[in-house]
């Protein structure tokens, strides 16, 4: 197929568009995917345009299409909805969410705008947007309604819906999530509109209880793994699921004695253990959460290996496996890390209930317990171990001297549950 071309004195607003690359005036060789396209500026605005991919591959005929399109826009006072989900800044409600999902997935055509967030966070943000669209659908056609036509009443309807479905903390997260969706449309897609969610009353969130785990509670949970029925009844059909896994007790102890997040602990390897000049052992692992939030590689966190943690590692095979690339937890795994994470979370709750513990604690509570006991020793330096302070980008295999001294102090002095903390 011949490549489409534009004459030297082309009709104003006409461009060549590649449906494969989704760009105007392409430099690719997808000639069979080329079309003529027209973009018409909306008078009285700075950036707003109406665009249309033209049907004809013959330039003279495409010009006639463009003229008729512009004439129609003038007759309708530029209110005609032209949904072009591949280019432009005038989307329907549905296409706006699709565009946002692509952006969150890192599919932005502009390198400087590419997002780097977890898939779980992306799904959560899109879920909030879908709930908003669902409330819109009761009164509007979401496939033809322009996103700039979202009204204050639409926001009010969603606000009421969210009030009835979420706790104050999740409510605030939901509203802020949809506000971020409109920020994307305004800041990244350059749609000329005011953010309809820019002002709303946030819910007052009471100070949350920091539910830590006592030594007695933790011991009871470990005992329940051996003595309590592993079967949990699911739903209303009486289906039973076996919650027992051979790695549960070691996994729970690793969580308690390292204070790490799920993805950090499940993917710990023996080769992550380093030894300082003074002989103090510690884990050096990627700080995935901070790396993602800053879109930077090369950020690390350091977990001191105190005597309790070292005793556990010896039980798990330290002498034979040190410096190997094997995972510490379930080295011969045939399942994904996410499966192990979910199993640990759900099984902890199952055996917590089996131990007769009524307190609202979960696997996350082990991290809170670790940080609480670390704070007793480290005080203001706690953040250097838990990554809650501002971090520097560290050179590979080197540690900031300030952090090193804190790691060494922690390895020597930290005792979870105090001096008598054998588990």
From TrEMBL:
Identify its protein family: Belongs to the 'phage' integrase family.
Keyword DNA-binding assigned: yes
Q: InterPro entries given for it?
A: DNA_brk_join_enz, Integrase-like_cat_sf, Integrase_catalytic, Integrase_recombinase_N, Tyrosine_recombinase_XerCD
List the source organism. Answer: Flavobacterium pokkalii
By what name is this protein known? Tyr recombinase domain-containing protein
Span of domain Tyr recombinase: 245-373
One Pfam family name from the record?
Phage_integrase
Query: Which keywords are on file for this protein?
Result: DNA recombination, DNA-binding
Q: Which domain of life is it from?
A: Bacteria
């Amino acid at each position: 197929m011949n490549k489409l071309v534009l004459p030297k004195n082309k009709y104003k607003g006409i461009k060549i568009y590649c449906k494969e690359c989704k760009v105007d005036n392409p430099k690719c060789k997808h000639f069979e995917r080329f079309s003529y396209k027209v973009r018409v500026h909306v008078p009285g605005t700075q950036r707003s345009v109406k665009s249309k991919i033209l049907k004809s591959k013959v330039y003279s005929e495409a010009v006639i299409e463009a003229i008729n399109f512009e004439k129609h826009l003038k007759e309708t006072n530029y209110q005609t909805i032209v949904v072009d989900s591949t280019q432009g800044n005038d989307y329907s409600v549905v296409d706006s969410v699709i565009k946002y999902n692509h952006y969150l997935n890192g599919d932005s055509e502009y390198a400087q705008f590419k997002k780097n967030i977890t898939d779980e966070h992306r799904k959560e943000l899109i879920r909030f947007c879908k709930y908003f669209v669902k409330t819109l659908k009761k009164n509007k056609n979401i496939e033809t309604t322009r996103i700039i036509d979202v009204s204050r009443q639409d926001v009010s309807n969603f606000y009421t819906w969210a009030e009835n479905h979420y706790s104050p903390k999740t409510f605030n997260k939901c509203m802020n999530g949809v506000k971020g969706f409109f920020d994307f449309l305004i800041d990244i897609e350059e749609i000329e509109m005011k953010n309809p969610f820019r002002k709303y009353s946030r819910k007052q969130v009471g100070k949350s209880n920091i539910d830590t785990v006592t030594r007695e509670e933790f011991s009871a949970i470990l005992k329940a793994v051996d003595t309590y029925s592993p079967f949990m009844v699911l739903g209303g059909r009486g289906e039973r699921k076996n919650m027992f896994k051979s790695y549960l007790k070691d996994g729970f102890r690793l969580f308690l004695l390292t204070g790490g997040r799920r993805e950090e602990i499940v993917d710990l390897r023996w080769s992550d253990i380093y030894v300082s000049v003074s002989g103090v052992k510690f884990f050096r692992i990627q700080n995935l959460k901070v790396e993602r939030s800053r879109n930077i590689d090369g950020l690390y966190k350091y977990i001191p290996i105190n005597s309790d943690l070292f005793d556990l590692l010896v039980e798990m095979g330290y002498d034979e496996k040190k410096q190997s690339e094997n995972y510490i937890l379930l080295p011969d795994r045939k399942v994904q890390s996410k499966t192990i994470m979910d199993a640990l979370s759900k099984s902890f709750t199952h055996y917590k209930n089996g131990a007769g513990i009524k307190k609202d604690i979960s696997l996350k509570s082990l991290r809170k317990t670790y940080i609480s006991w670390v704070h007793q020793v480290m005080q203001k330096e706690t953040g250097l171990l838990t990554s809650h302070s501002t971090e520097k980008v560290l050179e590979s295999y080197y540690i900031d001297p300030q952090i090193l001294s804190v790691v060494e102090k922690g390895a020597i002095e930290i005792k979870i549950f105090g001096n008598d903390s054998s588990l």
